User: Fold these one by one.
Assistant:
Number 1:
Amino acid sequence: MNGFLQMVARDLRLALRQRADAGMVVLFFVLTAALFPFGVGPEANLLARIAPGVIWVTALLAVLLSLERLFLADYEDGALELLALSPLPLEAIVLAKALAHWLTTGLPLVLAAPLLALLYNMDPAGLPALILAMVLGTPSLSLIGAIGAALALGARRGGVLIPLLVLPLNVPVLIFGVGAIDATLAGLDAKPHLLFLGALFLAALVTAPLAAAAALRQAIE
């Protein structure tokens, strides 16, 4: 556990040294969401209706923006090989990196999402469902993204390959994330959607470190 926490702290320190990268993700999230009203018009009811989908789609795109650097720096400077030889299992290293990625990328998106929802004139009654759905869903985006980042490691066009690998796997998270908010706004129970998001998170928590670690071993070899 100490090694795992040290790995998380290491990645957080590296992220703090490159604060511009994390800030760019949040800025991309806000600016991309802010562009939609220019395309669909300023009609308040329409904006409120599309708000859940816009927020989730832009959050997914913002997460994709930061995935390439998840393992790339350690791979290029040889640190990944040393980490693979450390007593900490490679699966735990993947999980630590995914956690650090969520803390520096996913968590800021969760905090910014309610502000965008209010900007879109979404009913405040849907904000708890929005926050809870993003808290359950964004960690899955980081975990699934770790698989894509590991598979694309060493590829010539890794930045282009990662979205092609990750986007299809993230569609269920997107569907149930938007569904939870829509159900709340319609006066229905959002619990089934949230339970599916929780199940997806648990499935990713178990399978993503194993799959990403296998891909990293292949890349190192």
Number 2:
Amino acid sequence: MATLARPIDVLYAKLGDKVKENVLLAPYTSARIGGLADIFISADTASELARIVKLLWKQEMPFTLLGGGSNILVSDRGVRGVVVMNRAKAVKFHGEDQPSVLVESGVVFSNLANRCASKGLAGLEWAATVPGTIGGAVYGNAGAFGGDTSGSLMRAELLTENGREIFTAEQLGYGYRTSILKRHELKAVVLSAEFALKNSTREEVTVKIQQFSAHRKATQPPGASMGSMFKNPPGDYAGRLIESAGLKGTRVGNAEISPLHGNFFINHANTKAADIRALIQLVQKTVKEKQGVELELEIELIGEW
């Protein structure tokens, strides 16, 4: 039997028309920035995601996993190798006295929070303004308004090299916007997660979500962005440091440090990743010089830089 000539031929043989080549990534990111992926594969269920990832591990093909495309900056040169788009979106509600919700990792967190509200279930109101997916939230311990993933998560199902495994929030080693996954201490992909909920009323949960959304709208800019650029340093806020360094409103090309909130960079159409990167370096350098603080990125740089 003839051997398959290229690794991509193996993917075509196993996955068929799920495999695409030279796909522009900008439309799949919240910042609307980024070049081409050499190979692009979409997964529509958690089982399909597991099958694709196992195949890529077996073929020793490195890959980048995309969900909501927030908290990332994709290079203008794009991503070599494989990008897997996670579209696994099943949602199941459980229990009456002690309710919970089991969700696949491609579900958008803000959509889930609103779905819970429509059923009068409380506990995830803080997530109603979180732009990314459940997978990204479990990976990076996403949070807002005093809540975070680690405080709400009961368990997550991960695909590791041993197969599908259940991890508790404690086992995921959570810290501020980090976990064993983000620190690359465990080679794994998030397949699904279960969150604890509380019985409430539709009105009560909806009002809380509306308050959070109004606050977010008043304090954070509209438009295409990646979310918060930098982690808040202990006892301070990245946005405050950037503002007091006099950097709000600074532009490089079509990229701007928001005049409304210094920790958000806005894409004013056709912005290059290189322009955002130049702003990142300018902010880090200026804040270090003026305030003596080294700002650490909250977003991740993806692709070939």
Number 3:
Amino acid sequence: MTVLLKVEDLHIFYGSIEVLKGISLEVSEGEIVAVLGANGAGKSTLLRAISGLLPIRNGNIQLRGEKLNKVQAYEIVIKGISHAPEGRKVFITLTVEENLNLGAYTHRKDAKVITDAKERVFNLFPILKARRNQLAGTLSGGEQQMLSIGRALMSTPRILLLDEPSLGLAPLLVRQIFQIIREINDQGVSILLVEQNARKALSIAHRGYVLETGNISISGLASDLKSNQKVQEAYLGGAAFKKKNIV
């Protein structure tokens, strides 16, 4: 498979604190790649760096071989990377449709591209079509998450960065969101997925990385990570399951 996104020896600092300590990873065309880790491991920092929202101290980020280190965030979106951030970050005083239109800002001179992208989003999330004239702030948490993902898709990305898409959602909505993520991938969009729900993430991912205090500690096929004892105990409830059976 052709490598789409490549991160090499990435170092990111907040002031004097090193948050990412030389990590490397890849996302190939057509892949879902999961990044697992506890709070504070640096997962959101990784996505923000790829999106151009944080300065890079050392290392490289490349999209199809083109270095992005000094590319402005809006230009990174134009080049094909879109980001649905943690916490949804929808514009609560704007309607659903206005939020989607903002996501299509890079295509503002091409009405057909915007119309086609919006129709695609509405096919994925029919509830957004029904709520298109409703203020985003009046949507449920699950609907706001759908809007956040839909807005990111409006730029017609080659790769979609998803930061904790299941956070705060009921189990039924979590299943629905992950089914849609798989469907987006089936439509040809590569996905880098940051997610604390490791079981769900690995159920749809092709490969995965485990991030611990700014370092990648484990990487491999999703199927291998699911069977890895350390991953099971830290992220899949393996230790609790083992203790329950011993008792």
